[in-house]
Amino acid sequence: MVKRICHGATNCPVARSLDAIGDWWSLLIIRDAFRGRRRFGAFQKSTGAAKNILTTRLRGLVDYGVMEMVPASDGSAYQEYVLTEKGLDLFPVVIALWQWGEKHFFEPGETPPVLRDRRRKKPIPELAVLAADGRRLRHTGTTLMPQF
Amino acid sequence: MVKRICHGATNCPVARSLDAIGDWWSLLIIRDAFRGRRRFGAFQKSTGAAKNILTTRLRGLVDYGVMEMVPASDGSAYQEYVLTEKGLDLFPVVIALWQWGEKHFFEPGETPPVLRDRRRKKPIPELAVLAADGRRLRHTGTTLMPQF
DNA sequence: CAATATGGTTGTATGTTGCAACCAGATTGT
DNA sequence: ACAATCTGGTTGCAACATACAACCATATTG
Asked: Which pLDDT tens digit goes with each residue over B30-84?
């Protein structure tokens, strides 16, 4: 999205992901797309981004295949921006960021908005990295992460 | 980290997380911290960031409580940067970004570095958002995400 | 058919980045 | 002991990105 002079051909999946979405505004747009926002104006209001910034970010997300432009669902001549399958796959990323923020950036007095499964009417349990045998995996120095 | 003029007091956990780590370099530093990097010079080499950028990012991460400076583990007079408990809690975020990049940014010919649990010698299964009853949760429009 | 909403584009001032040069203290080699 | 080098930065500057306001064309509403 933002031009990356230094890391064109990195082999690291994290770096490649960040090329597409590793930017404050893009991630905020994606968050709002998961909250049902579809229109340019809606994203502008809910993210607070300036129009030109929003334009470049939406264009970048479309270029990377995270979102796509579709005819407006209300039949008007306008267009909407919706997440592609690739974009929907970012769900765990957004949830992980949500839960981390919820855990670490709210004072005892504050009540963070609760992430809940509306269908089952229960809060969503904390996302966990599991090993192949289903046991919860905790990061322990050299357990993970190849050196590429 | 980067000064956010527009969103000082947002109630959204994702936005609060992004204030601390929603930046290309910071996330790359965190990735490398999970890969065992500890020294300024090591981060410089593995991320490719310029020294001044690295300085500001490391300082920011320390300010936000994601990393901390500790005396060097080899007994020298230098210092090292290590993840705090709060920083270690970013593990799911990094894994989610890793897996998303692995799935969507590698051509059929390319082989992405595999994320594997060294202790059990098996690849790590895909991170999934689970509902309270343990069933896999897929994003379906209005299932999740409160409007704050 | 005038007024307004939508979805942008184009300046311009300011802030952030990337790069190279420089520097002080710690460490190493002799 | 002392010069060379390594480590972990800081500073200056040019290039680039951002925020904000003004403007504009098309679509929609009253």
From this structure: 999 999 999 999 999 999 999 999 999 999 999 999 999 999 989 899 999 999 9
Does a structural domain hold residue A17? yes
Q: What is the count of structural domains for chain A?
A: 1
The answer to whether residue B130 sits within a structural domain is no
* Model pLDDT for residues A11-44, shown as the tens digit of each residue: 899 999 999 999 999 999 999 999 999 999 999 9
Spatial separation of the C-alpha atoms in residues A65 and A56, rounded to whole Å: 14
Between positions 108 and 147 of B, the ones with CB within 8 A of A are 112-120, 122-125, 127-133, 137-139, 141-147
For residue B110, the SS3 value is coil
Instruction: Answer whether residue B118 is part of any domain.
Output: no
Residue in B129, B133, B143 to test binding to A, most A beta-carbons within 10 Å:
B129
In Å, what is the CA distance from B91 to each residue of A6, A137, B29, B95, B127?
Answer: 25, 10, 13, 6, 11
